[in-house]
Design the sequence.
């Protein structure tokens, strides 16, 4: 404990803050994926070959990263 802050930050408090941060980032990543998916639905594929495959790969990567943020944590 320090003179500047008259309380001690416990391990439980640190863990709760880390969990909240991870859940917030997970939500942000899933929102990003939803926005990319919505934008891609209106895109004309004929002008750029392979574009749809790149979007699909990106969405999978984002979803995997989001899932790993809370995997094995409570």
Sequence:
């Amino acid at each position: 404990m320090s003179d500047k802050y008259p309380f001690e930050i416990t391990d439980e408090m640190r863990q709760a803050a880390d969990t909240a941060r991870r859940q917030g980032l997970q939500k942000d990543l899933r929102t990003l994926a939803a926005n990319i998916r919505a934008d891609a639905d209106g895109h004309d594929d004929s002008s750029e070959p392979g574009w749809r495959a790149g979007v699909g790969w990106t969405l999978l990567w984002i979803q995997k990263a989001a899932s790993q943020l809370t995997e094995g944590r409570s």
Q: What stands out?
A: The chain has a mean pLDDT of 86. The CA atoms of residues 41 and 52 lie 10 Å apart. The two ends are 28 Å apart (CA to CA).
